[in-house]
Specification:
Helices cover 36% and strands 20% of the residues. The chain is of the alpha+beta class and 464 residues long. Helix 1 (4-14) packs antiparallel against helix 3 (50-63) and helix 12 (349-363) packs antiparallel against helix 13 (389-408). The protein is globular and about 70 Å long. The chain binds flavin-adenine dinucleotide.
Protein backbone atom coordinates (compact mmCIF):
# COMPACT_ATOMS: atom_id res chain seq x y z
CA UNK A 1 0.00 0.00 0.00
CA UNK A 2 1.10 3.56 -0.65
CA UNK A 3 1.54 5.71 2.50
CA UNK A 4 -1.67 7.53 3.45
CA UNK A 5 0.12 10.86 2.96
CA UNK A 6 0.68 9.98 -0.72
CA UNK A 7 -2.98 9.00 -1.16
CA UNK A 8 -3.98 12.35 0.35
CA UNK A 9 -1.68 14.15 -2.10
CA UNK A 10 -3.15 12.19 -5.02
CA UNK A 11 -6.67 13.13 -3.90
CA UNK A 12 -5.60 16.76 -3.74
CA UNK A 13 -4.40 16.56 -7.37
CA UNK A 14 -7.25 14.51 -8.85
CA UNK A 15 -10.17 14.99 -6.48
CA UNK A 16 -11.45 12.33 -4.05
CA UNK A 17 -13.69 10.57 -6.57
CA UNK A 18 -10.77 10.02 -8.96
CA UNK A 19 -8.57 8.00 -6.57
CA UNK A 20 -9.39 4.33 -5.92
CA UNK A 21 -7.84 2.31 -3.12
CA UNK A 22 -10.25 -0.44 -2.05
CA UNK A 23 -9.23 -4.03 -2.77
CA UNK A 24 -12.25 -4.57 -5.03
CA UNK A 25 -11.44 -1.46 -7.10
CA UNK A 26 -7.74 -2.26 -7.33
CA UNK A 27 -8.54 -5.79 -8.44
CA UNK A 28 -10.38 -4.43 -11.49
CA UNK A 29 -7.14 -2.80 -12.68
CA UNK A 30 -4.87 -5.78 -12.00
CA UNK A 31 -5.30 -7.55 -15.34
CA UNK A 32 -5.73 -6.96 -19.06
CA UNK A 33 -7.03 -9.20 -21.86
CA UNK A 34 -4.19 -11.72 -21.50
CA UNK A 35 -5.14 -14.72 -19.39
CA UNK A 36 -1.79 -15.44 -17.77
CA UNK A 37 -0.71 -12.11 -16.21
CA UNK A 38 -2.02 -10.24 -13.19
CA UNK A 39 -0.67 -7.87 -10.50
CA UNK A 40 -2.42 -5.58 -8.03
CA UNK A 41 -1.78 -1.81 -8.11
CA UNK A 42 -1.51 0.12 -4.85
CA UNK A 43 -3.74 2.94 -6.08
CA UNK A 44 -5.67 3.83 -9.21
CA UNK A 45 -6.05 7.43 -10.41
CA UNK A 46 -8.60 8.58 -12.96
CA UNK A 47 -7.52 12.05 -14.10
CA UNK A 48 -9.73 14.31 -16.22
CA UNK A 49 -7.11 16.81 -17.44
CA UNK A 50 -3.52 16.94 -18.68
CA UNK A 51 -2.65 19.10 -15.66
CA UNK A 52 -3.84 16.36 -13.31
CA UNK A 53 -1.74 13.78 -15.19
CA UNK A 54 1.25 16.12 -14.86
CA UNK A 55 0.59 16.52 -11.12
CA UNK A 56 0.47 12.76 -10.58
CA UNK A 57 3.69 12.13 -12.52
CA UNK A 58 5.54 14.95 -10.75
CA UNK A 59 4.58 13.46 -7.38
CA UNK A 60 5.36 9.89 -8.44
CA UNK A 61 8.73 10.94 -9.85
CA UNK A 62 9.70 12.69 -6.61
CA UNK A 63 8.69 9.65 -4.57
CA UNK A 64 9.91 7.08 -7.16
CA UNK A 65 6.49 5.39 -7.37
CA UNK A 66 5.84 3.27 -10.48
CA UNK A 67 3.04 4.59 -12.72
CA UNK A 68 1.38 2.32 -15.26
CA UNK A 69 -0.75 4.11 -17.86
CA UNK A 70 -3.96 2.32 -18.79
CA UNK A 71 -6.71 2.95 -21.33
CA UNK A 72 -9.38 0.31 -21.91
CA UNK A 73 -7.20 -2.51 -20.50
CA UNK A 74 -7.69 -4.62 -23.66
CA UNK A 75 -3.98 -5.21 -24.22
CA UNK A 76 -2.97 -8.70 -25.32
CA UNK A 77 0.63 -8.38 -24.10
CA UNK A 78 0.32 -7.50 -20.40
CA UNK A 79 1.11 -3.81 -21.12
CA UNK A 80 -1.23 -2.11 -18.61
CA UNK A 81 -0.59 -4.59 -15.77
CA UNK A 82 1.17 -2.82 -12.88
CA UNK A 83 3.77 -5.51 -12.47
CA UNK A 84 5.78 -3.36 -9.99
CA UNK A 85 2.72 -2.19 -8.05
CA UNK A 86 2.43 1.57 -7.54
CA UNK A 87 -0.17 3.68 -9.35
CA UNK A 88 -2.35 2.75 -12.33
CA UNK A 89 -3.17 5.93 -14.22
CA UNK A 90 -6.36 5.17 -16.13
CA UNK A 91 -7.37 7.64 -18.83
CA UNK A 92 -11.00 6.68 -19.43
CA UNK A 93 -12.39 9.93 -17.97
CA UNK A 94 -10.36 11.91 -20.56
CA UNK A 95 -12.68 11.00 -23.42
CA UNK A 96 -13.68 14.18 -25.23
CA UNK A 97 -13.49 14.84 -28.95
CA UNK A 98 -11.82 18.25 -29.01
CA UNK A 99 -12.14 18.91 -32.75
CA UNK A 100 -13.24 17.22 -35.94
CA UNK A 101 -11.84 19.35 -38.75
CA UNK A 102 -13.45 18.25 -42.01
CA UNK A 103 -11.59 20.86 -44.06
CA UNK A 104 -8.22 19.63 -42.79
CA UNK A 105 -9.28 15.94 -42.63
CA UNK A 106 -8.06 15.73 -39.04
CA UNK A 107 -9.37 15.31 -35.51
CA UNK A 108 -7.97 16.07 -32.07
CA UNK A 109 -9.17 13.90 -29.21
CA UNK A 110 -8.46 13.24 -25.58
CA UNK A 111 -6.54 10.06 -25.00
CA UNK A 112 -9.24 8.00 -23.25
CA UNK A 113 -11.79 8.27 -26.06
CA UNK A 114 -13.09 4.82 -26.99
CA UNK A 115 -12.54 3.96 -30.67
CA UNK A 116 -16.19 3.09 -31.33
CA UNK A 117 -17.35 6.47 -29.94
CA UNK A 118 -14.85 8.18 -32.24
CA UNK A 119 -16.01 6.15 -35.25
CA UNK A 120 -19.67 6.97 -34.53
CA UNK A 121 -18.91 10.70 -34.46
CA UNK A 122 -16.80 10.50 -37.64
CA UNK A 123 -19.36 8.55 -39.67
CA UNK A 124 -21.92 11.33 -39.07
CA UNK A 125 -19.47 13.65 -40.86
CA UNK A 126 -18.73 11.18 -43.68
CA UNK A 127 -15.21 10.67 -42.29
CA UNK A 128 -13.16 7.55 -41.66
CA UNK A 129 -10.35 6.55 -39.25
CA UNK A 130 -9.15 3.17 -40.58
CA UNK A 131 -7.12 1.41 -37.80
CA UNK A 132 -9.62 -0.99 -36.24
CA UNK A 133 -8.46 -3.30 -33.47
CA UNK A 134 -11.24 -5.80 -32.92
CA UNK A 135 -11.54 -4.52 -29.35
CA UNK A 136 -12.99 -1.29 -30.77
CA UNK A 137 -15.94 -1.33 -28.35
CA UNK A 138 -13.58 -0.66 -25.43
CA UNK A 139 -10.03 0.19 -26.52
CA UNK A 140 -9.00 3.85 -26.31
CA UNK A 141 -7.22 6.01 -28.86
CA UNK A 142 -4.37 6.51 -26.34
CA UNK A 143 -3.96 2.75 -25.93
CA UNK A 144 -3.98 2.38 -29.69
CA UNK A 145 -1.23 4.96 -30.13
CA UNK A 146 0.81 3.46 -27.28
CA UNK A 147 0.57 0.02 -28.96
CA UNK A 148 0.65 1.28 -32.57
CA UNK A 149 -2.42 -0.89 -32.98
CA UNK A 150 -3.58 -2.52 -36.17
CA UNK A 151 -6.70 -4.41 -37.24
CA UNK A 152 -8.39 -5.78 -40.37
CA UNK A 153 -8.39 -2.47 -42.29
CA UNK A 154 -4.62 -2.17 -42.06
CA UNK A 155 -3.96 -4.36 -45.12
CA UNK A 156 -5.09 -1.48 -47.31
CA UNK A 157 -4.85 1.53 -45.01
CA UNK A 158 -1.84 0.94 -42.73
CA UNK A 159 -1.57 0.93 -38.92
CA UNK A 160 -2.02 3.63 -36.26
CA UNK A 161 1.39 5.27 -36.85
CA UNK A 162 0.30 6.20 -40.38
CA UNK A 163 -2.43 8.45 -38.89
CA UNK A 164 -0.83 10.16 -35.88
CA UNK A 165 0.01 13.76 -36.73
CA UNK A 166 0.56 15.21 -33.27
CA UNK A 167 0.59 14.32 -29.58
CA UNK A 168 0.47 16.00 -26.20
CA UNK A 169 2.60 13.88 -23.87
CA UNK A 170 3.30 14.23 -20.16
CA UNK A 171 6.85 13.14 -19.40
CA UNK A 172 7.88 11.32 -16.22
CA UNK A 173 9.01 14.63 -14.68
CA UNK A 174 5.51 16.09 -15.15
CA UNK A 175 6.65 18.26 -18.10
CA UNK A 176 3.90 18.63 -20.72
CA UNK A 177 5.35 18.36 -24.23
CA UNK A 178 3.71 18.80 -27.63
CA UNK A 179 5.18 16.90 -30.58
CA UNK A 180 4.05 16.96 -34.21
CA UNK A 181 1.32 19.26 -35.52
CA UNK A 182 -1.98 19.33 -37.39
CA UNK A 183 -0.26 19.26 -40.79
CA UNK A 184 0.01 16.10 -42.86
CA UNK A 185 3.65 16.89 -43.55
CA UNK A 186 6.14 17.96 -40.90
CA UNK A 187 9.93 17.67 -41.07
CA UNK A 188 10.96 19.47 -37.90
CA UNK A 189 13.90 17.38 -36.78
CA UNK A 190 13.57 13.80 -35.51
CA UNK A 191 10.18 12.04 -35.74
CA UNK A 192 9.29 12.21 -32.05
CA UNK A 193 5.62 11.46 -32.79
CA UNK A 194 6.76 8.08 -34.07
CA UNK A 195 8.95 7.57 -31.00
CA UNK A 196 5.95 7.83 -28.66
CA UNK A 197 3.75 5.81 -31.00
CA UNK A 198 4.26 2.20 -29.96
CA UNK A 199 6.19 3.15 -26.79
CA UNK A 200 3.84 1.00 -24.64
CA UNK A 201 3.42 3.56 -21.87
CA UNK A 202 7.14 3.53 -21.03
CA UNK A 203 8.19 6.98 -22.29
CA UNK A 204 5.33 9.31 -21.38
CA UNK A 205 1.58 9.53 -20.83
CA UNK A 206 -0.20 10.61 -23.99
CA UNK A 207 -3.06 12.99 -23.16
CA UNK A 208 -4.11 14.45 -26.53
CA UNK A 209 -3.88 13.03 -30.04
CA UNK A 210 -4.26 14.68 -33.45
CA UNK A 211 -5.14 12.16 -36.14
CA UNK A 212 -5.28 12.21 -39.93
CA UNK A 213 -8.66 11.18 -41.35
CA UNK A 214 -9.96 9.95 -44.70
CA UNK A 215 -13.30 10.37 -46.44
CA UNK A 216 -15.61 7.43 -45.68
CA UNK A 217 -15.54 5.07 -48.69
CA UNK A 218 -18.97 5.24 -50.37
CA UNK A 219 -19.36 1.53 -51.11
CA UNK A 220 -18.15 -1.84 -49.86
CA UNK A 221 -18.74 -5.54 -50.32
CA UNK A 222 -17.98 -8.56 -48.17
CA UNK A 223 -16.82 -11.88 -49.60
CA UNK A 224 -16.77 -15.10 -47.58
CA UNK A 225 -14.55 -17.85 -48.91
CA UNK A 226 -14.36 -21.47 -47.81
CA UNK A 227 -11.32 -23.73 -48.31
CA UNK A 228 -10.55 -27.38 -47.61
CA UNK A 229 -7.08 -26.50 -46.41
CA UNK A 230 -5.45 -23.58 -44.49
CA UNK A 231 -2.34 -23.79 -46.65
CA UNK A 232 -4.37 -23.47 -49.88
CA UNK A 233 -6.17 -20.48 -48.33
CA UNK A 234 -2.81 -18.86 -47.49
CA UNK A 235 -1.58 -19.40 -51.06
CA UNK A 236 -4.79 -17.75 -52.34
CA UNK A 237 -4.01 -14.68 -50.20
CA UNK A 238 -0.61 -14.35 -51.85
CA UNK A 239 -2.29 -14.70 -55.26
CA UNK A 240 -4.73 -11.87 -54.45
CA UNK A 241 -2.05 -9.52 -53.17
CA UNK A 242 0.33 -10.15 -56.08
CA UNK A 243 -2.49 -9.59 -58.63
CA UNK A 244 -2.49 -5.85 -57.98
CA UNK A 245 -5.76 -5.58 -56.09
CA UNK A 246 -5.59 -4.74 -52.37
CA UNK A 247 -8.78 -5.50 -50.42
CA UNK A 248 -9.77 -3.26 -47.50
CA UNK A 249 -9.79 -6.27 -45.16
CA UNK A 250 -8.42 -9.80 -45.60
CA UNK A 251 -8.86 -12.07 -42.56
CA UNK A 252 -8.44 -15.80 -41.93
CA UNK A 253 -9.95 -18.29 -39.46
CA UNK A 254 -9.44 -22.03 -39.20
CA UNK A 255 -11.88 -24.90 -38.63
CA UNK A 256 -11.73 -24.53 -34.82
CA UNK A 257 -12.90 -20.92 -35.14
CA UNK A 258 -15.54 -21.69 -37.78
CA UNK A 259 -17.10 -24.32 -35.49
CA UNK A 260 -16.87 -22.07 -32.44
CA UNK A 261 -18.44 -19.09 -34.26
CA UNK A 262 -21.32 -21.25 -35.50
CA UNK A 263 -21.81 -22.49 -31.94
CA UNK A 264 -22.07 -19.07 -30.32
CA UNK A 265 -23.49 -16.82 -33.08
CA UNK A 266 -24.49 -18.84 -36.16
CA UNK A 267 -24.05 -17.06 -39.51
CA UNK A 268 -24.40 -20.13 -41.73
CA UNK A 269 -20.76 -21.19 -42.18
CA UNK A 270 -20.11 -24.83 -43.14
CA UNK A 271 -18.69 -26.32 -39.93
CA UNK A 272 -16.69 -28.94 -41.81
CA UNK A 273 -14.71 -26.24 -43.71
CA UNK A 274 -11.03 -26.21 -42.88
CA UNK A 275 -10.40 -22.51 -43.56
CA UNK A 276 -12.31 -19.31 -44.04
CA UNK A 277 -11.22 -16.04 -45.63
CA UNK A 278 -13.31 -12.99 -44.82
CA UNK A 279 -12.68 -10.20 -47.30
CA UNK A 280 -13.96 -6.67 -47.74
CA UNK A 281 -13.51 -4.42 -50.76
CA UNK A 282 -14.27 -0.71 -50.57
CA UNK A 283 -14.18 2.46 -52.67
CA UNK A 284 -16.49 3.82 -55.34
CA UNK A 285 -19.34 1.46 -56.36
CA UNK A 286 -17.59 0.75 -59.70
CA UNK A 287 -14.25 -0.02 -58.00
CA UNK A 288 -15.92 -2.27 -55.44
CA UNK A 289 -17.72 -4.18 -58.18
CA UNK A 290 -14.55 -4.61 -60.27
CA UNK A 291 -12.31 -5.52 -57.28
CA UNK A 292 -14.85 -8.03 -55.93
CA UNK A 293 -15.12 -9.74 -59.32
CA UNK A 294 -11.33 -9.88 -59.72
CA UNK A 295 -10.84 -11.25 -56.19
CA UNK A 296 -13.62 -13.85 -56.61
CA UNK A 297 -12.13 -15.16 -59.82
CA UNK A 298 -8.61 -15.35 -58.30
CA UNK A 299 -10.07 -17.27 -55.35
CA UNK A 300 -11.85 -19.77 -57.60
CA UNK A 301 -8.64 -20.31 -59.60
CA UNK A 302 -6.75 -20.72 -56.30
CA UNK A 303 -8.83 -23.69 -55.14
CA UNK A 304 -11.63 -22.11 -53.08
CA UNK A 305 -14.48 -24.51 -52.40
CA UNK A 306 -17.08 -21.76 -52.12
CA UNK A 307 -17.02 -18.01 -52.76
CA UNK A 308 -20.01 -16.22 -51.29
CA UNK A 309 -20.61 -12.49 -51.79
CA UNK A 310 -22.82 -11.06 -49.01
CA UNK A 311 -26.08 -9.93 -50.62
CA UNK A 312 -26.56 -6.91 -48.36
CA UNK A 313 -25.13 -4.95 -45.40
CA UNK A 314 -27.06 -7.05 -42.87
CA UNK A 315 -25.49 -10.30 -44.08
CA UNK A 316 -22.05 -8.63 -44.23
CA UNK A 317 -22.45 -7.25 -40.69
CA UNK A 318 -23.24 -10.76 -39.46
CA UNK A 319 -19.89 -12.04 -40.77
CA UNK A 320 -17.92 -9.08 -39.38
CA UNK A 321 -19.67 -9.36 -36.00
CA UNK A 322 -18.56 -12.96 -35.81
CA UNK A 323 -14.99 -11.86 -36.65
CA UNK A 324 -15.20 -9.32 -33.82
CA UNK A 325 -16.32 -12.06 -31.41
CA UNK A 326 -13.68 -14.56 -32.53
CA UNK A 327 -11.11 -13.79 -29.83
CA UNK A 328 -13.71 -14.06 -27.07
CA UNK A 329 -14.95 -17.28 -28.66
CA UNK A 330 -11.48 -18.78 -28.27
CA UNK A 331 -11.07 -17.55 -24.70
CA UNK A 332 -14.12 -19.45 -23.57
CA UNK A 333 -12.67 -22.79 -24.74
CA UNK A 334 -9.69 -23.11 -22.37
CA UNK A 335 -8.68 -21.96 -18.86
CA UNK A 336 -5.70 -20.06 -20.32
CA UNK A 337 -4.94 -18.92 -23.85
CA UNK A 338 -1.64 -17.56 -25.14
CA UNK A 339 -2.62 -15.14 -27.90
CA UNK A 340 0.34 -14.51 -30.19
CA UNK A 341 0.59 -11.99 -33.01
CA UNK A 342 3.58 -13.11 -35.02
CA UNK A 343 3.95 -11.53 -38.44
CA UNK A 344 5.83 -12.79 -41.48
CA UNK A 345 6.52 -11.41 -44.96
CA UNK A 346 3.42 -12.25 -46.97
CA UNK A 347 5.27 -14.51 -49.40
CA UNK A 348 6.11 -16.76 -46.41
CA UNK A 349 2.53 -17.33 -45.20
CA UNK A 350 2.22 -20.84 -46.64
CA UNK A 351 5.41 -22.05 -44.94
CA UNK A 352 4.43 -20.34 -41.70
CA UNK A 353 1.00 -21.94 -41.47
CA UNK A 354 2.45 -25.36 -42.30
CA UNK A 355 4.99 -24.93 -39.50
CA UNK A 356 2.38 -23.82 -36.94
CA UNK A 357 0.33 -26.92 -37.78
CA UNK A 358 3.46 -29.07 -37.26
CA UNK A 359 4.19 -27.38 -33.91
CA UNK A 360 0.59 -27.99 -32.80
CA UNK A 361 0.97 -31.70 -33.58
CA UNK A 362 4.46 -31.98 -32.08
CA UNK A 363 3.33 -30.63 -28.69
CA UNK A 364 -0.17 -32.18 -28.79
CA UNK A 365 -1.68 -28.72 -28.26
CA UNK A 366 -4.72 -27.15 -29.88
CA UNK A 367 -3.55 -23.93 -31.58
CA UNK A 368 -6.44 -22.26 -33.42
CA UNK A 369 -5.32 -19.74 -36.03
CA UNK A 370 -7.04 -16.43 -36.61
CA UNK A 371 -5.68 -13.21 -37.97
CA UNK A 372 -5.03 -10.37 -40.32
CA UNK A 373 -3.55 -12.63 -42.99
CA UNK A 374 -3.46 -9.83 -45.57
CA UNK A 375 -0.77 -8.21 -43.37
CA UNK A 376 1.06 -11.51 -42.78
CA UNK A 377 -0.12 -11.07 -39.17
CA UNK A 378 -1.47 -14.26 -37.57
CA UNK A 379 -2.86 -14.93 -34.11
CA UNK A 380 -1.99 -18.53 -33.21
CA UNK A 381 -3.90 -19.02 -29.94
CA UNK A 382 -2.26 -21.67 -27.79
CA UNK A 383 -4.92 -23.32 -25.61
CA UNK A 384 -3.50 -24.29 -22.25
CA UNK A 385 -4.04 -24.14 -18.48
CA UNK A 386 -1.66 -22.14 -16.32
CA UNK A 387 -2.54 -24.40 -13.35
CA UNK A 388 -1.46 -27.54 -15.25
CA UNK A 389 2.33 -27.14 -14.94
CA UNK A 390 3.26 -29.75 -17.54
CA UNK A 391 0.78 -28.50 -20.14
CA UNK A 392 1.72 -24.86 -19.52
CA UNK A 393 5.44 -25.63 -19.91
CA UNK A 394 4.67 -27.33 -23.25
CA UNK A 395 2.63 -24.31 -24.34
CA UNK A 396 5.56 -22.02 -23.54
CA UNK A 397 7.89 -24.23 -25.60
CA UNK A 398 5.42 -24.19 -28.51
CA UNK A 399 5.20 -20.40 -28.25
CA UNK A 400 9.00 -20.10 -28.38
CA UNK A 401 9.11 -22.36 -31.43
CA UNK A 402 6.45 -20.27 -33.19
CA UNK A 403 8.53 -17.13 -32.49
CA UNK A 404 11.70 -18.83 -33.77
CA UNK A 405 9.88 -19.89 -36.94
CA UNK A 406 8.61 -16.35 -37.58
CA UNK A 407 12.11 -14.93 -37.10
CA UNK A 408 13.67 -17.56 -39.37
CA UNK A 409 11.17 -16.62 -42.09
CA UNK A 410 12.20 -12.94 -41.79
CA UNK A 411 9.20 -12.04 -39.62
CA UNK A 412 8.70 -10.44 -36.21
CA UNK A 413 7.42 -11.67 -32.84
CA UNK A 414 4.74 -8.97 -32.61
CA UNK A 415 2.91 -7.21 -35.41
CA UNK A 416 0.52 -5.16 -33.28
CA UNK A 417 0.11 -6.29 -29.65
CA UNK A 418 3.53 -5.10 -28.46
CA UNK A 419 6.16 -6.75 -26.27
CA UNK A 420 4.69 -5.83 -22.85
CA UNK A 421 5.33 -8.59 -20.33
CA UNK A 422 4.53 -11.41 -22.67
CA UNK A 423 7.40 -11.30 -25.11
CA UNK A 424 10.15 -9.77 -22.93
CA UNK A 425 12.24 -12.95 -22.84
CA UNK A 426 12.28 -13.04 -26.65
CA UNK A 427 13.30 -9.44 -27.34
CA UNK A 428 16.99 -10.27 -27.44
CA UNK A 429 16.40 -12.79 -30.22
CA UNK A 430 14.21 -10.38 -32.14
CA UNK A 431 16.24 -7.16 -32.08
CA UNK A 432 19.87 -6.16 -32.58
CA UNK A 433 21.66 -5.82 -29.17
CA UNK A 434 22.69 -2.27 -30.03
CA UNK A 435 19.10 -1.40 -30.98
CA UNK A 436 17.99 -2.61 -27.51
CA UNK A 437 20.73 -0.50 -25.89
CA UNK A 438 19.53 2.54 -27.87
CA UNK A 439 15.94 1.89 -26.68
CA UNK A 440 17.16 1.69 -23.07
CA UNK A 441 19.17 4.91 -23.57
CA UNK A 442 16.05 6.74 -24.83
CA UNK A 443 14.16 5.43 -21.82
CA UNK A 444 16.90 6.72 -19.46
CA UNK A 445 16.74 10.21 -21.04
CA UNK A 446 12.95 10.48 -20.83
CA UNK A 447 12.40 8.61 -17.57
CA UNK A 448 15.65 8.56 -15.56
CA UNK A 449 13.95 7.18 -12.43
CA UNK A 450 12.24 4.39 -14.39
CA UNK A 451 8.79 5.17 -13.00
CA UNK A 452 6.80 4.81 -16.23
CA UNK A 453 5.49 1.30 -16.79
CA UNK A 454 8.62 -0.32 -15.33
CA UNK A 455 9.24 -4.02 -15.92
CA UNK A 456 8.04 -4.00 -19.53
CA UNK A 457 9.63 -4.65 -22.95
CA UNK A 458 13.06 -5.91 -21.74
CA UNK A 459 14.27 -8.07 -18.88
CA UNK A 460 15.76 -6.10 -16.01
CA UNK A 461 18.27 -8.74 -14.96
CA UNK A 462 20.62 -7.71 -17.76
CA UNK A 463 19.70 -10.62 -20.03
CA UNK A 464 18.32 -8.12 -22.52
C1 LIG B 1 -10.93 -9.06 -28.38
C2 LIG B 1 -9.68 -8.28 -28.67
C3 LIG B 1 -9.34 -8.01 -29.98
C4 LIG B 1 -8.19 -7.27 -30.28
N1 LIG B 1 -7.89 -7.02 -31.58
C5 LIG B 1 -6.81 -6.27 -31.87
C6 LIG B 1 -6.50 -5.97 -33.23
O1 LIG B 1 -7.21 -6.36 -34.16
N2 LIG B 1 -5.39 -5.22 -33.47
C7 LIG B 1 -4.59 -4.75 -32.47
O2 LIG B 1 -3.61 -4.06 -32.74
N3 LIG B 1 -4.85 -5.05 -31.18
C8 LIG B 1 -5.93 -5.78 -30.85
N4 LIG B 1 -6.21 -6.06 -29.54
C9 LIG B 1 -5.29 -5.58 -28.49
C10 LIG B 1 -5.69 -4.21 -27.86
O3 LIG B 1 -7.06 -4.00 -27.95
C11 LIG B 1 -4.94 -3.05 -28.49
O4 LIG B 1 -3.57 -3.14 -28.20
C12 LIG B 1 -5.44 -1.67 -28.03
O5 LIG B 1 -4.78 -0.68 -28.77
C13 LIG B 1 -5.24 -1.42 -26.55
O6 LIG B 1 -5.95 -0.24 -26.19
P1 LIG B 1 -6.40 0.00 -24.68
O7 LIG B 1 -7.01 1.35 -24.59
O8 LIG B 1 -7.21 -1.12 -24.19
O9 LIG B 1 -4.98 0.05 -23.97
P2 LIG B 1 -4.53 -0.72 -22.66
O10 LIG B 1 -4.70 -2.17 -22.82
O11 LIG B 1 -5.13 -0.09 -21.46
O12 LIG B 1 -2.97 -0.36 -22.67
C14 LIG B 1 -2.14 -0.83 -23.69
C15 LIG B 1 -0.73 -0.23 -23.52
O13 LIG B 1 -0.77 1.16 -23.78
C16 LIG B 1 -0.31 1.91 -22.66
N5 LIG B 1 -1.17 3.09 -22.61
C17 LIG B 1 -2.52 3.12 -22.57
N6 LIG B 1 -2.95 4.39 -22.58
C18 LIG B 1 -1.84 5.17 -22.63
C19 LIG B 1 -1.63 6.58 -22.66
N7 LIG B 1 -2.63 7.45 -22.65
N8 LIG B 1 -0.35 7.05 -22.71
C20 LIG B 1 0.68 6.18 -22.74
N9 LIG B 1 0.53 4.84 -22.69
C21 LIG B 1 -0.71 4.35 -22.66
C22 LIG B 1 -0.42 0.98 -21.48
O14 LIG B 1 0.52 1.28 -20.49
C23 LIG B 1 -0.16 -0.37 -22.12
O15 LIG B 1 1.23 -0.59 -22.23
C24 LIG B 1 -7.35 -6.80 -29.22
C25 LIG B 1 -7.71 -7.09 -27.90
C26 LIG B 1 -8.85 -7.81 -27.63
C27 LIG B 1 -9.19 -8.09 -26.21
Amino acid sequence: MLPSETITQLKRIIGKEGVLTTKEDLNAYSYDATSVWTHMPEAVVLPTTTEQVAGVLKLANEKMIPVTPRGGGTSLSGGPIPIKGGIVLCTTRMNKILEINKDNLSATVETGLVLQDFNNALSKEGLFYPPDPQSFLSCTLGGMVAENAGGPHCVKYGVTKQYVLGLKVVLASGYVMKVGSKTVKNRTGYELVSLFTGSEGTLGVITEITLRLLPLPPARKTIVVIFDDMVVAAAAVTNILSSGVIPAKLEIADNFLIRRIEEIMPVGLPVEAKALLLIQTDGSPATVEADSKQISSILKRSGAKEVRVAKDEAEADGYWNSRKAAQAAIYSTAPSVMVEDVTVPRDKLVEFIQKIEEISQKYGLVIPILGHIGDGNLHPNILTDIKDKENFAKAKEAMAEIFDTALTLGGVISGEHGIGLDKKPFLKKAADPLAIEIMKGIKRILDPNNILNPGKIWEEDGTT
